[in-house]
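Title: [Solved] carbonic anhydrase 3D structure

Original question kept below for reference.
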Amino acid sequence: MSEAPLSPAQAYEVLKAGNRRFVENTLQHPNQDADYRASLAPGQRPFAVLFGCSDSRLAAEIIFDQGLGDLFVVRTAGQVTGPEVLGSIEFGVGVLGTPLVIVLGHDSCGAVTAARQTVLEGSAPPGFLRDIVERVTPSVLAARVEGQTEVDEIVDVHIQRTTDLLLERSTLLAKEVEEGRCAVVGLCYRLTDGTVREVGSRGLPEHAKP
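Solution (posted by the thread starter after getting help):
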C-alpha cells in the first residue's frame, strides 16, 4: 500500500480483504516489484503491526496477501510478550504511526500445548523453552477456571489475554487506543483452511466488527 489507511477500521478491512484473497486463492501479491521496493528505501509506512506466533505456517505477508512496507511484523513462539516485543510494537505505533495492532495466534499451537502439558504433568521443558511455557501458563490456568481445558480453547484465552496485556503494560498503546488513533485486534488463524477469526478487539467501532 502506498498510503496508510486513515483509521483503524480501514486498516482492519484491508487486512481482512487480503486474508479473503488468500483463502480464495485470488492473490494479488501487491507491492512486491522492484520499483516499489526502491520507492520504500527512504522510509516505511506500514498500515498494521502484526504480533504473531513464530510458527512457520503463519507467514504474515502471505496469509494476508500484503507486500513490502505493509506490515510491521513482530513474532515470538506462542506470541509471548516481553520488553523487546512491547518496544517493537510501540515503535510501530508511536514512531511509524500504524493505526492497527494485530495479535495473531493459531489452532494447535505448540507453545500452548507445551504449557498445558506442563500444568497437567508438573514438568517443565529445559532451557529457554521453559521461559516461553511460563509466559503461556497463566492463560492455561485462566482457561481452566472457566472450564476450558482443550488446546484450542486455551489458544483463544491466550490471544485475548495477550491483547489485554499489551494495553495494560504499554501506556503509549493504551493512549493511542483511547484517543481513537489505533485499535488492537486478536485473531486466531485456522491452519487447515487459512481463515482468521476475531477473538476480541479494543478500539474498533461496533460497525467494524464481524
